[in-house]
Structures are given as C-alpha cells and as structure tokens.
Amino acid sequence: MSWLSELFQKGGPFFIVNTFFLAIVIGLIVERSIYFLGRGHLNAKAFLEQLRKLLSANNVDRAKKLCDATTAPVARVAKAGLNRLHRGEAAVAQAMEETMTDTLPEVKTRIGALWSLANITTLIGLLGTITGLIKTFKSLGNLNPADKNKELSDGISEAMYNTAYGLSIALLCMVGHLLLSAAMKKVISDLEAFSLRFENLLADGGAGASASSRAPAAPADVDHEKPTA
Fold this sequence. Notes:
This protein is an all-alpha fold.
C-alpha cells in the first residue's frame, strides 16, 4: 500500500478533502442501491395478481397481511386502500393518493445530491490544481537550478493528481445519478400504474370486498402467499 500513501502525499491537502467526499458518494450510491434492490423492489404486476386472487375470494384480511409482509411502496399504497375499503371508492382513492404522496420523497431522497457532489469534487480538484501550481512557482525562486526541475515536477504532479481525482469522482457521481434516476423512475412508474389498477380492482369488486371487511373472511383455496420480489 506504499503507492497509496505516496499518492496521498503527492496529491496534497485537497486530495484528502476529495477523498472525504468520495466516501460520501460511495455511501450514498450503496445506500440507494440497497433500497432499490431491497425495500423499494417488488414485482408490482405479480403483487397485484396475488391481491386480485385474495380479494376475489373476499379475503381482505389476508390481503392486508400480504401488504404487511413487505415495506415496498406499492404494498403501503395497497394497504392504505384496503384500510379505507368500507368507506367507499372516494375514500379509497384519497387514502392511496395520500400514501403515495408520503412515499415519493423516500424514493427520491438523496439522488439529486449526486449532481451537487459532482460539481463540488470537480471544483475541489481544480482548486488543488491551482494551489499546487501556485506553490510550485512560488518556491522556484528560492531554489538553485539543480532543484528547480524536481520541484517543478512535484508541483505539476500534485496539480494533475488533483484534477484527475476530482474528475474521476465527478464521473462516478454522474454514472451513479444516471443509474439511480432510472431505478427511481421505474419505481415511481410502477407505483402510479399499480395505484390506478388497484383502484379499478377495488371498484370492480368493491361490494364483496367491503362486506368481507366487516365480516369474518370466508375460507378460500388460496395458499399463504408472500409478495413476489
């Protein structure tokens, strides 16, 4: 790891500052990736089909338990609609819309920060480049000719290291933003489509489902299911 310590030594103080921001960028990308691959990920079409089977059997309680089995946004929206099922279509639509509004900030959070971090790390890299060159040319006047070449070489190295490092982190931010934005749009699109289809499903079978929500659930030949990821 001697090359790494040498790199930090040659890069100067702004190289270390950018390393701090690199850690933030990596942490942000990893956290959002885990969310979209874990909590935020659910096959909305398969989940809707599972709910359709349960509701067609007037089994609202098991439909609610199915929603409770996952923390995915579509499950929370569905649970909100099921909880208001006995109040009519307007109440169901309002509950689902409110839940979706509350859920969207969780889906979008911190992704936009990657653009800001890309700009910040680029500017820090350029600042390291400029200060490295200033320091180099300032010290050249106090050196004998034999040492000037080495000092100039070290200064230019520090400047280029900072530029390359800042641009590399900015590139990582941009790629991360691109991929996470695509995942975010997919979740939001699935959520909106699911909400509309689920409202239609409840409207089509509203009478039977409402009755089952006020009475014990009828036995149904439906296996205990878990949401399909």
